[in-house]
Design goal:
123 residues; mainly beta; globular
Length: 123
């Protein structure tokens, strides 16, 4: 079993930045690929970014809507996953979820989910 706890959400003006954190705990968490998803009110959950690694090489995957603005990273020593969000837009508003077990954009491929952290971007 893997537990995930997100933090770092909040209210930010358009054009600003936020950094989300996700703390992983449980057995062999360093083996799990991880990703971020978001869900706006009244909409389906959508993929944001994912990260996996092989030895010391990290591979990342981003939704087109966030490429060049968001950066996913991971600190395996601390069992943390981060999402640095820059140049935020109002359409980035939503609840952001950390997930473990997958790498694709399909949320069904992920086994574990956090409770989410709210991000609100205002103009």
């Amino acid at each position: 079993q893997v537990q995930l706890v997100e933090s770092g959400g909040g209210l930010v003006q358009a054009g600003g930045s936020l950094k989300l954190s996700c703390a992983l705990s449980g057995r062999t968490v360093s083996n799990y690929r991880t990703g971020w998803f978001r869900q706006a009110s009244g909409k389906e959950r959508e993929f944001v970014a994912a990260i996996r690694w092989s030895d010391t090489t990290y591979y990342t995957n981003y939704a087109d809507s966030v490429k060049g603005r968001f950066t996913i990273s991971r600190d395996n020593a601390k069992n943390m996953v981060y999402l640095q969000m820059n140049s935020l837009k109002s359409e980035d508003t939503g609840v952001y979820y950390c997930a473990a077990g997958g790498y694709s954009s399909d949320p069904k491929t992920y086994d574990y989910w956090g409770q989410g952290t709210q991000v609100i971007v205002f103009s």
